[in-house]
Every structure is written in C-alpha cells, then in structure tokens.
Amino acid sequence: MALTLFLHNRAKAGQDVPRKLTIAALDERGLEDVHALNKRNGLAIAVEYAVTRESEAADRLVERLPPGSMVVNATGLGKDRPGSPLTDAVRFPRNGIVWDFNYRGDLGFLRQARAGERSRGLRVEDGWVYFIHGWARVIAEVFAIDIPTAGPEFDRLSRIALEAAAQS
Fold first, then answer.
1. Which of 80, 93, 116, 126 could form a disulfide with 120 if both were Cys (CB 3.0 to 4.6 A apart)?
2. Can you tell me the distance from the alpha carbon of 55 to that of 114, in angstroms, rounded to the nearest whole number?
3. Domain range for residue 84?
C-alpha cells in the first residue's frame, strides 16, 4: 500500500509514474484493504487487481508485463513463511526491476530474481536496504541524530547490521 500511495502522490504532482499498476493477492480478502484505500484516495494511476491463488497464475501475470516493468514481492513469502509467490520457472520482464521487500528468511523470490538477473537484464533490489533505510530513519528521529541513508557510512551500517543479524 505504501508503494501505491507513493506512486499516486508522484502522479498527482505530475512526475513520472507507471501507466498502470497490477496488484495481486492469493485471495479477494488480500485485496480488500488496498482496493478500499485506493478508492478512498481516487488513485491517479490505473489499477488492475488480480487474484493469483496458485504460483503459476502469478507467473502468467508477471510474464504478461511489458519490458522495463517493476515486479515487487510484498507478500511476506520468504520472510514470514518459506517460499515465493512465483515458481522457479517465472520469466521476469526484460530490463525490469525486481524488488523483494523481504529482508530475512529464505528469500525465495530474491533468489528467483537473481537467477534471471543477467539473462533478463534485471535490476534486483534487496529488501535488506529498504529495511535498514527505514530503521535508520526511525533511529535518527528518536535520538535526534543524523544517520545517512546512502553512501559509505550507510553501507557500513548495513554491514554491521547484517553481521549482527547473522549472530542472532
């Protein structure tokens, strides 16, 4: 929902956004909240909602996307429970962006994206950076300190956090 609202706000400001969003869930219940929020906000981008009860249906949805599309895993699969919403046979859109919001767990979706990275010309984004960025912003606010969100200091912070996570 946060990414959808971010894109909506960019569209309202006349900035570059996708022509259409496709939001998928395992069942209708999974789409209710995001659909209601989008309706309430009068979303400034066309949206298609899809129920993909099985991974093969999600694969077909991804494979219909035009080159350069972004595919995001915001399901929790790979973090909250093992797996991916897609099968290992999925073909991501050429020259696309693939972003796994997950930052821990088995990260099956991230593995699938990396498997096609070179052959499909993908830019793969790991949820770990997203997690550390959010965490750094909260800590900076709470303690009224400056924490960089990019660059060498941020990279060092990320490495330290990864090492700490590996020890727990």
1. 116
2. 18
3. 2-126
